Write the structure tokens for this entry.
Amino acid sequence: MKFNILKSVWMLAVCILVLPLLGFAQANEQDQNLAACKYGFASCDRSRLSGPERAQLDVVEHDRNVVECRRGETNCDRSRLTPEEAAALSLAQHQHNYTACMDGIEACDYAKLSPQEAKTVAVSAHQRNVADCESGAQSCDSSKLTPLESRKAIAAEHQRNLSGCTEGWDPCDRSRLTKAEAISVTAAEHQRNSAHCMDGWGECDSSMLTKTEADAVNRNEQRHNYDACKSGDPACDYSKLTKGQAKELAAAEHQRNYKACASGYGYCDRSLLTAEEQKTILAHPSL
């Protein structure tokens, strides 16, 4: 009898502990199924939804359909839109098409434009073509320009060619330059070459320099080379030093070597010291 009572108590305790867990598991599965339905997953089982859950799902699916219609997606079902939503969608689509026609970037359906919008779009397209022709864009259709616009486009192209020739850019067609422009371009080329030779940057054609310019470039190169030799720069070319520069550098190096030997700091070559300097260092080792 006592054993049966204990057994009954134990079974009751198990039921108390397990049943809530089973209920929680079922509730969790129900939530997962509802989430799957809301996200449109294939695992959704609509037959397991309660009345309130089906109502929630209807709202979610309706909102998703509205968004898909606004985005122009193929999943859009216009029949499920309210009259207000359908009207708003038509307005948005019309505005998007009008903007696409005005910008000339996206696909445009001219048939959906009103007569006034079509006129405005035509003006915008013409202005865009004029700008393309004046900037030299490949999309330019010169056949659609008025005589005045054509002359302006030709003038703009001539100016671009002149700028390219003056600055040394491509493309440059010298045959299209006037006599005065050709003279100006030649002067600009000469000045640019002289500057390149002076600063050592860019291409330098020394044969194009005048004697005065060549002398100035040589002096500049000698100064740069002398500075490089003074600072120990690897770019130094001792063969290009003048006699005076070589003498100054030799004197400076001799003085540096003497100080290094006297102080014990830095590289010292005692073989380069004079006899008098060696005596001085021996007599005053702390120098």
